[in-house]
Specification:
4 copies of one chain form a homotetramer. Helices cover about 70% and strands about 0% of the residues of chain A. Chain A has about 260 residues and is mainly alpha-helical. In chain A, helix 9 (about 155-180) crosses helix 10 (about 190-200). Chain A is extended. Chains in contact: A-B, A-C, A-D, B-C, B-D, C-D. Chains C and D meet through helix 9, helix 10, helix 11 and strand 2 of C and helix 2, helix 8, helix 10, helix 11 and strand 1 of D.
Chain lengths: ~260, ~260, ~260, ~260
């Protein structure tokens, strides 16, 4: 086993009992978490002004580590059967979703544009938290979720179409009901969609609501019918979870021969 | 196969491997989608003023296509066993729900009333999207939904009665609680129903809410009891989905004879 | 069969194929529905002033019918094995819940107090809608609901205790967080309970909400934990429905002997 | 059986048919309930001023009883095999969660700090209601809840991670959308989290909401996707309840030999 292969194992594809890889993972995770925490704190104006130099130092430190990690991945990725070719494999590695996220996380630092742009893009570092998904202990649950979404794809697609149609229909009706009375709030169908989403998701901020009798009657009917519709995806996925879990757990065994009664 | 029969096949009742019919369907769907999109954009005042002539041209183009399609359906519908009689069959075809929607979608254009009326009715074009339901790939899911609603009809009817009674009871009580203190907001029982619906669906815009102690106590009790009631239809339909799907999927097979254990 | 027995059959305990009883039921139901509708319309000030005499006439007509019905029930109730004794049975009949509702529905009319009191008590007529529950065709669904609530009594009781404790705890904490900053809104723990109920039921009117950082953090934690808790009763009842319905429907039959595999 | 053992039985670990212990439990529960009720009433300023001396007397009475109870527990706890050692056992008893709650409930009274501190800590008395959990009749339901939470631990952990990530992502995006337009409301990412929680839990107070077109589009997408995510824990626990209850109830029995078909 050469150094390149070992590097790859540590940064990317380690086995469960590989201590070095585990410590590396934990360290990177912690750094990502601290980066996210720093981004949040930095957004508070008073804190940013008071601790500007500390934030800058931490930023330099983080980007250095992340850059070394990225280069190590890029260098050692040829060990993997997926990216064997030194040129083509590495290019494919760069354009893999996870690597792009890593690149977006460190890229802005090296672009000499200062200020707004840099800060916005740094928010992409947040998505590095997705690396958590690789942690083997949660992979079963993630697989379960993926399986359920897959098995319910058709229902979800048709529910989405229903939801979109309903959203459109309710926005159109309410627009014609309320626009003459509240031309500033229900100013157009897209503006009315904001009302429809706030209502059908039951958030109801209260910044926009019907005031005419007809508008209120229509809104009531749409609310009662539509809320169930917007709750259906959750219900479908919930039912999918129950089914998938029961499929795993319930085995019927014949008392005569101990054979399983197959479903 | 004559031209009339072929026309009917293309516009209405095509088989899955009929290319011409498929392209026609896709074209009409796209045109409906573009019409809906245009209606939404047109409702934005600034866009309407700026691109008035483009909207008009697209309108003329769409109505022309839809009219040709409608006449083609009307002409060829006698091919179908459902509408065989040239006069009676065609009249029955005109009054079928889908044809009425199509007629409402093109009708307003030919009526010489300009402005508000025209635009309102044009919104009916939206419902042409229901034609999607015929697309064979979604028919299974639609059947499932219909089956579940049918099998739960009784529960849904009784839940609706409960909901209506609860709505009425809570509105009446809150009206008597709040009317003396807020005569402008809780001005009548129908006005209080708007409060009740906003509360029981948990939308809670905040335009109307109790301010007296008694009103708040009653509203709290109604909210805690009623929200569950208003969530029951979703729960019942959700449970119906689980059952219907499980009915399809779980077959028990006896290990001795491989026969299915019937449910 | 004497007249008294026939009267009892018509007003109260009819068999399914008894035409006269069915027409009587439908008539009373319609009158109840119209009374409710009239109460709602009467609460609209403009309508009440404009049609005062019609409302009065309808009131006199309704009360006359309901009084005759009540007296017919009271006279003929001795036919029923439940109320056989002419004096004791009739007294027990008067104090049965359904009869009390009937009495409350007609009583206020005969009391010579005019105005507010009369109108308030007239709202009790609303509860006559509970008679709808007697409609035999829905009795199966009602039995199902009763069965589910009974079978989940213990879970519902403990969930209610949890909810009450959680409500109290969150109100107490938020009171201490927000009272110093908003002494007019979070003025006492009972006042804060109104906030807690609006939040935990996700109604969120927006008349009262935390503004301090600590209050917002606590409110967020309470909201995320508590909403699930307040949704549990619906979930428990929903699960109960699934179970009860599946119990009825799924019978496993052995392929060798066609006997049912008992659960 | 000596007095110490009997005392322990009465205050702590009684059998179901022990009358004295049952009366003691009921008395303490009632006193706790009255204490909670008194705390709530005392928070209402007008009531506190009017009945100050009654509240003080009740306070002295309650603390006396609770102190005697606490000392009785501490004295007799050595009877229990868990706390046998007179010194070490008693120290372990003092630091058991239930005993700490009891201590916090009476402690503040004896500390000579008057006013705010005392009142805040007295709220801890609320948690003494947890003693109800020992009541044998609810222990089954509690066990069920514990079992369900345990069996769904993994799903709940991963859902929590997803929720936290989603909360962070939506707050970050909305902060960058709305901060330039509403710098006072969306002042920082933590401030935007308050918006995100109010939205994703569908509470929607209406104190903070996006006003820019981009912000509204993003908020709509986050709301539609995120609300399902925030409803998943309830769904997962609900499904867990169904499964756990069905596991208990459905036994398949072979019609030939009456043996159970094992799952």
């Amino acid at each position: 086993m050469n150094i390149k292969q070992r590097t790859w194992e540590i940064v990317e594809a380690a086995q469960d009992n590989d201590k070095a890889s585990w410590y590396f993972d934990v360290f990177i995770m912690l750094l990502i978490a601290l980066n996210i925490f720093a981004s949040i704190l930095e957004s508070v104006a008073t804190l940013e002004l008071a601790y500007l130099q500390y934030f800058s130092l931490f930023e330099i430190f983080s980007v250095t580590i992340f850059t070394i990690e990225y280069l190590a991945r890029l260098w050692s990725c040829t060990t993997s059967p997926d990216y064997q070719n030194p040129i083509k494999g590495r290019i494919r590695f760069i354009f893999s979703p996870m690597s792009l996220i890593d690149l977006f996380a460190i890229g802005p630092f090296f672009i000499p544009f200062i200020g707004y742009d840099l800060r916005t893009l740094r928010a992409l570092r947040l998505f590095r938290v997705l690396r958590l998904a690789k942690a083997s202990r949660y992979s079963k649950s993630l697989e379960l979720i993926k399986k359920v979404v897959d098995s319910r794809k058709e229902e979800l697609v048709i529910t989405t179409i229903f939801m979109a149609t309903f959203l459109l229909a309710s926005s159109t009706v309410l627009y014609f009901c309320e626009n003459p009375t509240q031309p500033d709030k229900f100013s157009s169908i897209p503006a009315t969609m904001w009302w429809a989403i706030a209502t059908l998701t039951t958030v109801g901020y209260g910044d926009i609501y019907p005031i005419t009798a007809l508008g209120k009657v229509c809104a009531s009917i749409f609310a009662i019918l539509g809320i169930g519709m917007f709750a259906l995806p959750t219900g479908i996925l919930g039912a999918g979870f129950v089914e998938e879990i029961q499929k795993k757990k319930t085995k019927l065994v014949c008392p005569h021969c101990q054979k399983e009664i197959k479903k």
